[in-house]
C-alpha cells in the first residue's frame, strides 16, 4: 500500500469503534497550526490548511468513505471556511512581517466596536448555519451550528490579532467535545480537549505579549 492509499483508507480501532487514520493526521496538523499560531509564526496558516483538507473528508460520509454513520456538515463546512480565512491570515501575517514586524502580527484587544461587530456577525451566522445544517441533515445541528460559527469567528480573530480569539476557541471546545464523543469521532474529541487546554495557555501568552509590546512601543511624538 502506497502512502496515499494508507492515508485515505487505513483505520484503527478506538474504544471498540473504527477511526480513520486521516482523522488523526488531520488533527495533528491542526495542533501544529495552533502551536505555530501561539508563537506567531506564518507557517501556522499553510500547516492548518493541510489539516483542513484532511478533516473535511472525515466528516462527510455521504461523499467520502467513512466508518461513522453520522454526517457532521458543520464540522465539514468549518474546514472550508478555515482554509479560506487561513489564506487571508497567511497573507496578512506575511505582509505584516515584511513591513518590519518581528512576528506575523501584534496581539491586541479588540475595540468595543469590533466586539459588537463580532457579536452581530455571530448571531446572524449562527441563525443561517442552523437552518442550513438542519436542511442538510447534519447530526446535532444546534450544536454543530455553534461550532461552525465560533470556529469562523476565532479564525478571523486570529488573523486580525485579537487576543480574545483564544476565548472563542474555548467556547467551541466546550461544545465540541461531547458532540464528537457521541458521534464517535474520538481523535477529534480528544484533540478538542487538548485544544481547550492549549487555548488557555495561548490566551495567557498573547495577553502577556500584548502588554509587553504595548509598553515597549514608544508613544508618538506630536510636533506642533
TrEMBL record:
<dbReference type="InterPro" id="IPR006419">
    <property type="entry name" value="NMN_transpt_PnuC"/>
</dbReference>
<keyword id="KW-1003">Cell membrane</keyword>
<keyword id="KW-0813">Transport</keyword>
<protein>
    <submittedName>
        <fullName>Nicotinamide mononucleotide transporter</fullName>
    </submittedName>
</protein>
<dbReference type="GO" id="GO:0005886">
    <property type="term" value="C:plasma membrane"/>
</dbReference>
<feature type="transmembrane region" description="Helical">
    <location>
        <begin position="12"/>
        <end position="36"/>
    </location>
</feature>
<feature type="transmembrane region" description="Helical">
    <location>
        <begin position="115"/>
        <end position="137"/>
    </location>
</feature>
<comment type="similarity">
    <text>Belongs to the nicotinamide ribonucleoside (NR) uptake permease (TC 4.B.1) family.</text>
</comment>
<feature type="transmembrane region" description="Helical">
    <location>
        <begin position="76"/>
        <end position="94"/>
    </location>
</feature>
<feature type="transmembrane region" description="Helical">
    <location>
        <begin position="166"/>
        <end position="183"/>
    </location>
</feature>
<keyword id="KW-0812">Transmembrane</keyword>
<keyword id="KW-0472">Membrane</keyword>
<feature type="transmembrane region" description="Helical">
    <location>
        <begin position="189"/>
        <end position="207"/>
    </location>
</feature>
<dbReference type="Pfam" id="PF04973">
    <property type="entry name" value="NMN_transporter"/>
</dbReference>
<dbReference type="GO" id="GO:0034257">
    <property type="term" value="F:nicotinamide riboside transmembrane transporter activity"/>
</dbReference>
<feature type="transmembrane region" description="Helical">
    <location>
        <begin position="43"/>
        <end position="64"/>
    </location>
</feature>
<keyword id="KW-1133">Transmembrane helix</keyword>
